[in-house]
Write a structure and sequence with these properties.
Blueprint (H helix, E strand, L loop, with lengths): L2 H81 L3 H28 L1 H8 L1 H58 L1
Helix pairs in contact: 3-4
């Protein structure tokens, strides 16, 4: 191999290395940018996680405080049930309510029994109309008969009063004749 061939090969080899170097340099630059972007993203995520953890910690503390308050209230309620000064009054009211409930249920049963006839008319409206028509017709006939009886009675009374008037005249005439005869 001649020197010129070695130089050509060396030049080609150097160019190849430069090309590879520039490609590697570009790839490393892109990779470095990606790493920087990832680092920025991971920093933001880390800050968010820290904030979230802080919120969770505060929420857990609040939950613990609330649980303590609930337990205190449960204990106070348990003690209050035993030592409540109004326990007798509450029991009396509860007993009264139970008694009134029984009275109310009895009254509701009585009302339901009373409403059976009305429910029948609601269920069978033709029967209701028939009963109503029968009642109206009976009332009209009864009123008509009563009117005629009263009319006949008043006619008889008028006739009797005419007879009484005639009898009274006759008695007056008789008294007058009798008083004339006595004189």
């Amino acid at each position: 191999m001649k020197q010129s061939e070695v130089e050509i090969i060396t030049n080609l080899f150097n160019e190849k290395i430069k090309t590879l170097y520039s490609k590697l340099d570009a790839e490393f630059f892109v990779l470095n940018e990606r790493i920087n972007t990832s680092n920025a993203t991971s920093d933001r995520i880390e800050k968010q996680v820290i904030l979230t953890n802080s919120r969770v910690t505060h929420a857990e503390d609040d939950i613990r405080e609330i649980e303590k308050d609930i337990n205190l209230l449960k204990d106070a309620n348990r003690d209050h049930i035993v030592a409540c000064p109004q326990a007798d009054n509450i029991q009396k009211i509860a007993d009264d309510l139970i008694e009134k409930k029984g009275d109310t249920e009895k009254k509701l049963r009585d009302i339901n029994i009373d409403l059976i006839e009305y429910r029948m008319f609601k269920k069978y409206p033709k029967i209701a109309i028939g009963v109503l028509a029968f009642t109206c017709i009976t009332t009209v006939i009864g009123a008509y008969i009563t009117y005629h009886q009263v009319r006949i009675t008043t006619t008889n009374i008028d006739n009797n009063s005419i007879n009484i008037d005639e009898n009274t005249k006759n008695i007056k005439n008789f008294n007058a004749i009798d008083s004339l005869q006595r004189k």
